[in-house]
Amino acid sequence: MKLRVLNSFSIILVGILFLLFWKEPGFWISFSLLVLSYLIILSFGIFKLSLNFFAPAITSGDADTIYLTYDDGPDAEHTSSILAFLKEEEVAASFFVIGSKVEENPQTMREIAGGNHFIGNHSFSHAPLFQFWKTKRVFEDLKKSADTIAVYQHPSRKAFRPPIGIMNPNIAKAALLVRTAIIGWNNRTLDTTTTDVEKLWRRTKRKLEKGKTIVLLHDNRPQALQLTKRIVQWGKENGMKFDTVEHLINELT
What is the per-residue burial (b if ≥16 Cβ within 10 Å, else e) of 91-105? Predict the structure, then answer.
């Protein structure tokens, strides 16, 4: 919706400027600046899900509740240790899984499904050029992933987190066709950038203290377990609750 408004406004504005001022000195400089402004606004919509530029996305939750979310699994080496810790602490989390990895790790998927966790769709392929695919190909990928997840979780329970958190019109249309909610985050741990748990925890804690509680982790990284432990310990010490993003979806429906 916001994209349509921006496009309509831009077309009308360019038309008016062209009709009235195209012979004036400096017109093409002004026109170039207008195009640049359009591209900058578009870029914000692509990289920032919270703007809801191409489609509505859930990117925040209750300030007193921590929503642990994990991307890029299931991972044969690391996911099970995270699940064991969450079970010990009686904490439910959300796992946005890659369909191809679901097929490779059925036992880990059974552990996730049996642990009162929520399973979300993170595409089947997580392909490097996913953001450049046409709507039909994105839809087919999401549908294939959804079908693999449906083996472990009822198909009516669904949510989608786009790979790398990038959104565009084609991905938005495909998500609409799959009839799924879109989930982002507001506390990105950056656990894919360093193994320094102390550094990651300082960053994550600052955001938790500001009420940013949808936490993005990656369960295919060894540092995710130690960071999870820090988050859960801090949350319990500060009277925080823990929940899955499914409850945020249910609040909107």
Answer: bbbbbbbbbbbbeeb
One-letter amino acid for residue 51 of the chain: L
CA pair distance 192, 18, nearest whole angstrom: 47
3-state secondary structure labels for all residues of the chain: CHHHHHHHHHHHHHHHHHHHHCCCCCHHHHHHHHHHHHHHHHHHHHHCHHHCCCCCCECCCCCCEEEEEEEEECCCCCHHHHHHHHHHHCCCCEEEECHHHHHHCHHHHHHHHCCCCEEEECCCCCCCCHHHCCHHHHHHHHHHHHHHHCCCCCCCCCEECCHHHCCCHHHHHHHHHHCCEEECCCEECCCCCCCCHHHHHHHHHHHHHCCCCEEEEECCCCHHHHHHHHHHHHHHHCCCEECCCHHHHHHHC
Please tell me the distance from the alpha carbon of residue 103 to that of residue 166, in angstroms, as a whole number.
Answer: 24
pLDDT, tens digit, 9 for 90 and up, residues 69-117: 999 999 999 999 999 999 999 999 999 999 999 999 999 999 999 999 9
Task: Yes or no: say if 70 and 217 are a contact pair by the CB < 8 Å rule.
Answer: yes
Interatomic CA distance for residues 155 and 225, integer angstroms: 29
Sequence letter at residue 22: W
Residues facing 216 on adjacent strands: 69, 188
